[in-house]
Amino acid sequence: MRTEICERFGIEFPLLAFSHCRDVVAAVTGAGGLGVLGAVAYSPEELDRELDWIDRQVRGRPYGVDVLVPGRIDPSAAAPGDAIPAAHRDFVAHLFDKYGIPPETEPSGVARGGEGFGGRVTQQGATGLIDVALRHPVALIASALGTPPPIMVDRARAAGVPVAALVGTVEHARRQVVAGADIIVAQGSEAGGHTGEISTMVLVPQVVDAVAPIPVLAAGGIANGRQMAAALALGAEGVWCGSVWLTTEEAETPPAVKEKLLAATSRDTVRSRSRTGKPARQLVSAWTREWDEAPGSPGPLPMPLQLVLAEEALARVVAAAERGGPGARELANYFVGQVVGQLDQVRPARQVVYEMIEEFAGAVERMSDITGG
Amino acid sequence: MRTEICERFGIEFPLLAFSHCRDVVAAVTGAGGLGVLGAVAYSPEELDRELDWIDRQVRGRPYGVDVLVPGRIDPSAAAPGDAIPAAHRDFVAHLFDKYGIPPETEPSGVARGGEGFGGRVTQQGATGLIDVALRHPVALIASALGTPPPIMVDRARAAGVPVAALVGTVEHARRQVVAGADIIVAQGSEAGGHTGEISTMVLVPQVVDAVAPIPVLAAGGIANGRQMAAALALGAEGVWCGSVWLTTEEAETPPAVKEKLLAATSRDTVRSRSRTGKPARQLVSAWTREWDEAPGSPGPLPMPLQLVLAEEALARVVAAAERGGPGARELANYFVGQVVGQLDQVRPARQVVYEMIEEFAGAVERMSDITGG
């Protein structure tokens, strides 16, 4: 395929795969797309090890690294653990009691996050990860939240690595370009994780027009080849997919969560502040309902405080769910987009790529038939 | 263009235009699409006159009629005026006072609705309108809300007229097919008016797969040719557009509302129950904010009670806004989708059609170039 993104990265398909699992990243890059590793759950040392592994797998093919840099953060983020009010800790204890999570449950090692997480969702923390990434042959640095700080852009530029930035509005897209972003990822409200309120269908053409000639990737609502074709019809030069990898063979998604993802319909997600403090789309679960609707809820804290509180608690929840606790299974959730309703089987990541590209080609052929071309 | 919808209706472009204005309906049909008149604001006698006029304009070319049949309605709908609680009437009086609407303001004749509106949003009311429609050479009857009642399907069938039904979920689509719908309109959450929560990008392919071989039209987020191409890439056989006609030359949209539509961005809509009692996307305004967020709000009534209360009140608001009242302008709003951010000029409806089709062709050509076809 020939798009600006294919040419820039020397890839066969303009398909970027965001994942926290190195295996998915390597598999998508190996299949002709471009894997992007979500780095926020790793310490700099851990990230270095993961990227060493990826380097050995992809043998020169391109991959990227994604960090989380919030535009505005709570000043108490420096020592987030201390800043969490007693009422919020008590509410978590109440949930653990109500849903039968033994308080001594160790957090699941698979559900990354918890301690240290909050500290990395800062400019300083992100910079440490970027420094590690730039010591590897990364093809792309992405910033999933907020405007990339000048230091991030400067270091990436110096290393000759393009910077991609996720946006949910036209205004943010313009701001990101001013801040130095080389690629804009226009992410619709149907996406998993932190999203705005404007849908992919509406957002993408507006962002494409606003930032031309900067290339735009479409994100949100894209998990099959028809959706990829739609994204390119909207003017995107490629797509950025996250949710579709969560149920792949390679994904380290905890089995209890994977089961919920496979069973969910597109009605089973919600944009909630209960997991990070900012609106993020995720599976609806007892966790989101209790925080967002229960009369006794103190309401979510601002980012990153809620993130610190929630990730540690949910890592324990997942560990308990893995041991079969029914209450824990009710609470367990994960960031995922509305495409979750399409995910009903476990496939290798490579197969997901090939099926998307095959369906994409079919959609383009159908379009040509419609116009009699 | 060649799609199932083009062949079924003998139209050039698979572009259906929903509008309350007969001029838009006739213009789109005349330009090679298919105009659909929203009938709910009319009495049977008025509808008959409107359709007479359209018949003379379109000279045999196809057009449709849309009615509103809620699946579940409040039993008090029979005499909705009496069933509105005093607290809700008082809240409207409070808003009129706060925003400086003289209580004696006559409702604007242009903003259709108000008295009689509630009674027509019932099976009986809709059936009366359908009987009128079927005395004209209509090519399509559409039901914008809920499952079409058997009587509607039976009468349309007997007259050889296909029935289209709007849906926001896969489950509703399946139910509509069982109820006898011949065409499904899969409407994403970004659409104006009554919508669900699933975006067009996610909803359309799922509905297409679920109801095949029944043809699906995509609705929500479609106001230019790239968006139309995206919809067809998703598997739709055509598109159903509403918002884009509100700012056309032909539209009877009150000038004060048109101004707000032209100025709005895609962030300026909200799904709110404040206008009909069911979640409907509309311009955010003092009306939606007061009902949805003000501490003193009694909360919206169920449909059709809120519709009766709101349409009459907002017809007065619009009349006051037309006379320049600043508070009235703050309150005024209208049903519109997130594409409102793309509407920044007044164009004839025919030009909108031609520009969409031209951009559509460009998008398809670009797709072929990408695949090297």
Folded structure, characterized:
The structure is a homodimer of 373-residue chains. Chain A is α/β, with parallel strands linked by helices and 373 residues long. Chain A folds into two domains: 4-72 and 121-247 and 345-365, Aldolase class I (TIM Barrel, Alpha-Beta Barrel), CATH 3.20.20.70; 75-114 and 254-331, no CATH class. In chain A, 45% of the residues lie in helices and 13% in strands. Chain A is built from 16 helices and eleven strands. Chain A has an eight-stranded parallel beta barrel with strand order 1-2-3-4-5-6-8-9, surrounded by six helices. In chain A, strand 1 (15-19), helix 2 (22-30) and strand 2 (34-38) form a beta-alpha-beta unit. In chain A, helix 7 packs parallel to helix 8 (150-158). Chain A starts with a helix and ends with a helix. Mean pLDDT of chain A is 92; it is low at 110-115. Chains A and B meet through helix 10, helix 11 and helix 16 of A and helix 10, helix 11 and helix 16 of B. Chains A, B: GO terms for molecular function: nitronate monooxygenase activity. Chains A, B: This is Monooxygenase.
Q: Going across the major beta sheet of chain A, what is the strand order?
A: 1-2-3-4-5-6-8-9
**Estimated share of beta-strand residues of chain A:** 5-15%
Number of DSSP strands of chain A?
11
**Rg over C-alpha atoms of chain A, rounded to the nearest angstrom:** 20 Å
Sequence stretches where pLDDT stays below 50 over 5 or more residues of chain A: 110-115
Q: Figure out the total of helices of chain A.
A: 16
* Tally of distinct domains of chain A: 2
Distance between the termini of chain A: 19 Å
* SS-derived structural category of chain A: alpha/beta
